[in-house]
Amino acid sequence: MGIGSSRTCSFVLKLLTGAVAAFVLTATAAFAQRAVPRDPAEPGQAKPQPKLLARPVGDVARAAVDEKSMRTLIGKLVACGTRLTLSSWTDPKRGIGCGQDALAARLNEIAKDSGGQLQVVVDKFESTSERTSGKPMPLENVYAILPGRDPKLAKTIFIVSGHFDSRPSNVMDPEADAPGADDDASGVAVSVECSRLLSKAGANGRGTYRATILFAAVSGEEQGLLGSSHLVDWVKQQGYTVGGMLDDDIVGADTAAGAPHRVRLFSGNGEIDDADSPSRELARAIEEIAGRAAIRMIFRVDRYGRGGDHYPFYKAGLPAVRFTEPLEDYSHQHQTPRTENGIEYGDFEKYLNFTFMGAVARDNAEALRQLALAPAPPANAKLTGAVTPDAKVSWSADEDPERAGFEILWRETSEPRWQVYDFVASPGETILKGVSTDNHFFAVRAVGKNGARSIAVPTEMERRPPPLPSAPKQ
What we know:
Layout: H1 3-34, H2 67-78, H3 96-113, E1 119-127, E2 137-146, E3 156-163, H4 181-203, E4 212-218, H5 226-237, E5 241-248, E6 263-266, H6 278-290, E7 295-298, H7 311-315, E8 320-324, E9 338-340, E10 343-345, H8 354-373, E11 379-384, E12 391-396, E13 403-412, E14 419-424, E15 428-432, E16 440-448, E17 457-458, E18 460-461
Parallel strand pairs: 3-4, 3-5, 5-8, 6-7, 11-18
Antiparallel strand pairs: 1-2, 2-4, 6-8, 9-10, 11-12, 12-15, 13-14, 13-16, 16-17
């Protein structure tokens, strides 16, 4: 054998050795992931096996979504040329006023078909930001309100919203075209279609909702979240408590190979520990209702370096989340229409996927339906039992003849989702025998006799920091 052959054999041997090592490492890692954790059982005896109520009947069917009407509405919004907040509010053919006219007309059609249940409101106000050159600008939001039937819950409001303003590359240019089909005529179409689906259900006698639902189309998003910031104040002025806010912004396209994909659901964690903010609990509830095959939870407040209309609600400490398509194409948002280097820029209707958008509408509507059918969440949820063998979970709740009871939830501290530990009929304190306070997080949610669940309320724990050395006396 020659020198070249020896070197070849040596090289091949090294390759084989490396391949074997890589295989062993991969197999070991895979085995470690499959291995059963070697932890003590909690509780030591058998865990309770509660009989869980089925979810509410009459769920929104995917076939019930009217993609054709969504397409028609988006076409009318795009036909306005631009819907920049700084454009005309009075021109019926071009500008943001043209878009507002189309929205109000569609919502009034739906209100007529709802048997008088749906109430359409045009909310006029002024707002100022850097993107209005520091000058007060007239703005308008459009709302359709489906009042709750329960006197105790009618002032709890669940909101779904999209923004009907659009923008070109220069956010201060009211003359340039800004079709805004995806950003955010798609989200507006979802909000409007939800109003049709849910008000139609009530009109057909399949049941009305305990809480109030507001279907919003807001302006001024591109100029600094102006319409949604005003909406936070408006609901407070009307005496509502926000049960949850669903923002749909850029939910019209799913162009990556392998579609359909899951819609992304963003939720921030606020200024608290343990990943249990109101917004995070709303995201968990939506995923549980719509299913993990439909919802991809993203545990951050929004896309990196971006913002949306859920943000003013989130910063106010209210449960608010954002729906956004799986992968964004930045050549088709925030772009003045043009072609450069063979690339077409512009947010046009032809890039939308109405099958995907229809699924997003259905998931929004079903989440709103179940949340608005649910009892009020429990209050004063607390965890005690430190340095004892048992966790003690307590909570309070007002009387509710439509409530079946409460689910006590728990999860590993490293897990994103709750599991049901037990079902309890009445509020008060429940002792979880043989369950450590240290190894899990806990929460409680109310369950209606109809099977609808409230948003989970995490337990607050005693904050007892360890003793520290005292500063020497001077």
